[in-house]
Amino acid sequence: MKRVSRRNFIAASSAFAASSLLVGSGCKHSEFLLGQDNETIRSFDYQFVVDRHITVYADHHLNAFPSVGKLGNGKLFLAFRQAPDWSYRYGKTDIDPSSEAVNLISKDGEVWDREASELYANFLHGVDRPVIHVLQDGSLFCTFFMWQVEVKTSANENRGIPIFDNWIGFIKGAYSLRSTDDGKSWDEPVALPGSNTIGRESVELKDGSILCSSYSEDITIYKTKDKGLTWTILSTIPRPAGYSLTEPTLYKTDSGKIVCFAKGIPDVGNSKQTRLITTETVDNGITWTNTSVRKVDYIGAPHLLRLNNGAVLLTYKYCHEGAEIRGAVLNIGCTNMDDVDHHVLRTGLGMEEGNTSAIMLDKARFLVVYSNFDSNDDKPHIAGTICHVKTNG
């Protein structure tokens, strides 16, 4: 794996909110600039500057899997999964038939609603991992999947995921829904055909069509031309030899190329030693080529954010030896992830699994949100890191 830079850390103190943390000074990064017919390369030095860490939302629930977007009025919309805390009775699990999708609003990314609002809840099934997208027309588009839980019997014990030796969890399918009033109300959810677990980020094409992904061992790409009212299966991304593909996320580059980033789980050996796997399409998701197993390992679901200079911010949760939030700056084509430094943005997180989601706050600063255990009585809550990338050339 590429070296993880820890240089120039400034010790945090009680006055940390007023200080800045400089991470990875003097690291070389190659940026692709689009020409008329091809891409040219220039390089510059960059630094991650961590301005502050914040608690976005914490209460008596288990809050996890955040996703953030920016509304047309400039406010931030944060969606995440909320579930009751059964750990005092049964233990910890990600599967809960009473979990729901909730949301918060913020004007600046630092101060958020004190109470979460319901985005979607289902009477029979648990809602999991909502992902929010702001479409070109300003409407909100949300994807998620649901769980069904049954009492464990000899008939179903080998067909689902065991829960505390008493129940079996089944994935009920993946869904999308839309809001045209900034999340105040939502359409009824629409099921994706034959789907399993939904992937993370979707992409919107120039014509308004949307591509999203689901996964079992391979990744399936779905397309909708009517904002999620109807879906068709567009293509399948086969897994590379030796890996199953999970938690894919799609990113559309400035050239129109779409890159799929996925977490690869090895077929043999340590199943937690996941690798970042990428593949790309230049025909809007019909065919996928250049599948590569990257050097980045022990990765949670990745997130990609376009920075104002055209470079791409990759963030993810490092899920080994104490979870960390890491980041790297990729070129505009997302081709150099094995050649850049990956920097630690926050250490000491007490939750191995999870994802990141990032959004620009202004021309320079961005917010990375994630779930964290390090306070709030050992309950997962939504936390964030505000930082910016400083370029030296």
Describe the overall structure.
The chain is mainly beta. It has a single domain (about 5-390), classed as Neuraminidase (6 Propeller), CATH 2.120.10.10. Helices cover about 0% and strands about 55% of the residues. It has no helices and 28 strands. The strands form six sheets. A five-stranded mixed sheet has the order 1-25-24-23-22, with no helix packed on it. A five-stranded antiparallel sheet has the order 2-3-28-27-26, with no helix packed on it. Strands 8, 9, 10, 11 and 12 form a five-stranded antiparallel sheet that branches. It starts with a strand and ends with a strand. Mean pLDDT is about 85; it is low at about 1-20 and about 30-45.
Describe this structure in a few short sentences.
The protein is mainly beta and 393 residues long.
Secondary structure: helix percent:
under 10%
Identify the overall geometry.
globular
CATH level-two architecture: 6 Propeller
The total domain count is 1
